[in-house]
Structures are given as structure tokens and as C-alpha cells.
Amino acid sequence: MKKFYVSTAIIYVNALPHVGHAYELIATDTIARYKRMTGYDVFFLTGTDENSLNAERKARSLGLPTQEYVDSMVDTIKETWHKLNISYDEFIRTTEERHKRACQEFFTRAYNKGDVYPGTYEGWYCVSCEAFYRPEELVDECCPVHRKKPEWLTEKNYFFALSRYQDRLLQHIEAHPEFIQPETRRNEVLSFIRSGLQDFSISRSSMRWGIPVPIDPSQVLYVWFDALINYVSGIDWLTAPAKFQRYWPADIHIVGKDITRFHCIYWPAMLMAADLPLPRQVFGHGFVYLKGERMSKSLGTGVDPGAVVDEFGADSLRYYLLREVPFGRDGDFTWEGFVQRHNSDLANDLGNLLNRTVSMVNRYFGGSVPAPDSAEPRPALDAELIAQIEATFATVETSMNSLAFSDALVAIWEFVSRANKYVEESAPWVLAKTDRQRLATALYNLVEALRLIAYAVYPFIPGTAEKMADQLGITLDIGKDWHDTHVWGGYKPGTAVISKPVPLFPKKELTD
Ligand code: MSP
Question: Which of 13, 16, 21, 50 best tests ligand 1's pocket when mutated (most atoms within 8 Å of CB)?
Fold first, then answer.
């Protein structure tokens, strides 16, 4: 079985996740689920970035020991991801022992190569970004992302000789167009490298919280040097070499556009210094904005994904974000748009199709799905329905290969509309009086269309796919290659559907 290793960025623990963070997890979960369905041995890694100044300060402001504070945040973050049905295989915390060891080994390897040297750093530091800024990058003397005045830091640090890797990095990126996606991010990174790379500080002398520098325990590792290493410590680089051999290099790192540079420049250079292979791809997705504002914990402009799930269910949020924000581009979260998609695409189009079909199987056939008429050629109406679902799966496949979730969902919903139209065109309520055999075929076709829709939507809205299967009286065989499961005619006649269909998405009104 081919392997597929996919990761998200690991999030900071100084505040709870907002919908922007959830977006990244949802998108990555969709990839992981799709890959599992298409025959891959998937490893999906996520986790938390805990050795940061922002976490230490937050704990101090609450009067809590830092470890106690980060532990409690991790519990809440995991709870949010569970609510959203995020099927990660492993959750790495940067306070874990295996991670500390991996970081120290990275440092030592780079040091032994002559890539680490002591020096003095002076510069503007934004604690929310955990990054230094050059004066020309500041906007009105403030951090361009958090709009807060950065702090002036002067420290004796250890530096990583990034400049030594400039040529190798350029060669790699130029020779592997797929390494940085989408194209806009690739161009940004290329021009940044061409403007000249500067060595960067990889330790802090003023902080106690963090991973000690092996050759100088008076310093801790800079949080970004530490955090990037999660991608290897999370698959047990030093603790389970066979597992590491199996999954490394990562097939894709999913990260936000603000941190693409760390992943496309620092991280590959660090891997080169440690003599490890580079990941196959870094995908820098866009941002989700709220009323035109970047969602931000420190700006206080965020939507709590846990609260949205409690009110609407995980799949409404998953569907909305995947459908509304073309992956790689920015998008807006609006309550109006969200409720609209929930009511029209989910409750009406998909929910009603299931509801009507199951009700009619109960009404006309006592709840047992009838066998279709197998005579050839099929009526044109049926042949068209079948051809469209086949074309839909083909579109889903091409779209998913380029992570175009939105295109895949558009194609699936075109089929959902086609199936709704099929109900009107075949008019089972008329057939019930005139042609029972045709009625049986029409209802079988609708049930089979719904079975296939359940498979098609599973990577995006897995909870709904399971509920659909339940009401259709089947279980989804997710472990089986979907090329086998999506063949028309897989539904077994005689199967009993649920006797009273349950609405998949209760309709909602927009309230203040
Ligand atoms: N801890 C670092 C990542 C280290 S990875 C080795 C970090 N954490 S974060 O909590 O600030 O962000 C986590 C992820 O969420 C990042 O990929 C970031 O780009 C993404 N997003 C943060 N806000 C977002 C939006 N408003 N919209 C979409 N993604 C957003 O950066």
C-alpha cells in the first residue's frame, strides 16, 4: 500500500482556535479522508506549538505555571478538533520528550556541520508572530500582521547559516515546481530568496521556557526552529526509526500563507543541514476573514468553531468553508452566507433528497428497497442520471488531485440537483398509480444515487455521509478502494431503509 503523510501547522496555545485555524484542520482532514478512501496508508499529523513566549506570557498573566496552562489548552484544542471530526492519526506536542530530543539532535547535527555560530542579534520582535521584522517591513512602526508595536531585542544568540543554503534552495525549488504550491506562493518565496537570505537566530537567551540548547543550557531554542521539527518528531524520527522510514518525507505540509516562508526556506535548509530528505510539497492556503478583517486571536476578531458546531453541527461549517473558499485563495466568513449554505445546499438540496426518497420507499414499498428493472437499454432519463454520477466521480478525482475542494463540491451538488430533478421528472406519485415496475426502478435509482452521493461527500462531510448511510440501511465501506464502491448498482435490493427519515440538517434562521 502506498503511504501518504500529510500535516497541518501546529497551533499556538496562547488562545483558543478560531474558524481560521479550523479551516486548515478541516481542509487537511478532507485530504486525509480522501486519500484513505483511494487506497493510501495515510498518516495525518497535527499538534501544538507550546514553547513560545506568547504561551509563557499568557500563563503568567493568569498566574498559572506554564506547563499547567499549556496542558489545559491542549485538552480544549483537542476537544474542538474532535467536535469537527478531525481524523488525525497523531497529535504532537512540542513539550514532549521525543520532540525535545529531536530538536537537540537537529541542533547538534547543524552545529557539527559548522552551520551554527554565536553572534549578537538586535531587532524588532513581534511576540504574536514570534518573529523578527526588518524595519522596512513594519507599517507605521507596527507589526504588519498584528498592528502592535514590536519589541526591540538585543541578545547573544546562536545563528543558523541560512545564507549558505541559498543556492541549493533555489536549485531545488526551480527543479521541483510542485514543491511550493500554489504558484503565487512559489513566486513569493523565489523572489524572497533571490533578494538574498540572511542567517537567522535560532536561540533565545532571555527565555527560560523552551528546549535548552545542547551546547549552552543557558539558552533555549528559538520557537520556530523548534516547531518545524515537529514534522519529524511527530512520526518518531529518533524513537521509532521504522515508522520514520515508512512516512518521511512528508507528502504535503498544509500551512497558512503567513508561514509559507518558514516552511519553504528555513525548514528545507534545516533538513539539508541534518542530512534528511525534503518534503514533497508545501501548500500555503489563504486566509479566512471575518467582515474583511483577518481572524486573529490577538486582534479579537475570531469566530469560535466549537460554538458554531454546537449550534449547526460540524458538517455545516466544514461544507461552508470548503465550498466557499477556493483552496489557496482568501475568503470571507459571513453569517449570512453560512446560514444560506446550511439551509439551501444542505437542508434543502441534500437533506430533502434523502428525506423524500426514504419516505417514498416507505410509502410505496413498505420500507424495503425494490429491485430495478434490468432490461436494456435503460430509459434515457436513467442512463443520463448514471452517466452524470460517473462524470461526477471523475471530476471529484481531478479536483482533489489539485486540492480544489470547492470544484469537487460544485460537481457533487450539480449531481444532487440532477437527482432532485429526477424525482420531479420520474414523478413516482404518478407512477404509483400507473406503473409499479417503473416506480420500483425510479426509487431504486434514487436510493443508489444517494448511496453514491454518501461516498462522494464522505471526505468533506463525513458525519453526514454516515447518517445518510444509516438511513439507507447500509454501512460505508471506507477502507475499500472507492473505485470499487462507486460502481453503479452496488445497493442490494431488499435492504430496509429507516422507517421514519430524520432531517439531515434542521433549517436555521439567522439570529443576532
Ligand atoms: N505555531 C505556528 C505554526 C508552526 S508550524 C511548524 C503558527 N501558529 S498559529 O496558531 O498562529 O497558526 C496556525 C495555522 O493557522 C497557520 O497555518 C496559520 O496560517 C493558520 N491561520 C491562522 N489564522 C488563519 C486565518 N484567519 N485563516 C486561515 N488560516 C489561518 O503559526
Answer: 21
Mutational test site, ligand 1, from 76, 259, 295, 320, max ligand atoms within 8 Å of CB = 259
**Closest ligand 1 atom, residue 11 Cα:** 10
Euclidean distance between CA atoms 87 and 46, whole angstroms = 10
**Is the whole model's pTM more than 0.90, yes or no?**
yes
Check whether 155 has a pLDDT greater than 90.
no
Please choose, from the candidates 317, 331, 329, 254, the residue with its C-alpha nearest in 3D space to the C-alpha of residue 460: 317
For residue 355, what pLDDT is reported? 98
146 lines ligand 1 (CB under 6 A): no
Which one-letter amino acid corresponds to residue 312?
A: F
Domain ranges of the chain: 339-485
Give the pLDDT of residue 303: 85
Of 8, 10, 9, 23, give the one whose Cα is nearest residue 302: 23
Q: Report residue 290's pLDDT band, with 50, 70 and 90 as the boundaries.
A: confident
Residue 182 near residue 283, CB atoms below 8 Å: yes
Phi, psi (rounded to 5 degrees) for 485:
-80, -20
What's the confidence (pLDDT) of residue 129?
83
Q: For the domain covering 339-485, report its CATH number.
A: 1.10.730.10
Average pLDDT over the chain, rounded to an integer: 95
Burial (CB count within 10 angstroms: exposed 0-12, middle 13-18, buried 19+), residue 324 = middle
Which ligand 1 atom sits closest to the C-alpha of 52? 1
Cell readout for 33 is 479522508
* Alpha helices per DSSP H over 114-208: 166-175, 183-194
The response to whether residue 308 sits with its C-beta less than 6 Å from ligand 1 reads no
Q: Cell numbers of 226, please? A: 523548534
pLDDT at 302 over 90: no
* pLDDT above 70: residue 500: yes
Spell out the long-range contacts of 128-131 with Cβ–Cβ below 8 A and sequence spacing 24 or more.
128/54, 128/298, 129/258, 130/12, 130/52, 130/53, 130/54, 130/223, 130/224, 131/224
State if residue 12 touches ligand 1 by the CB under 6 angstroms criterion: yes
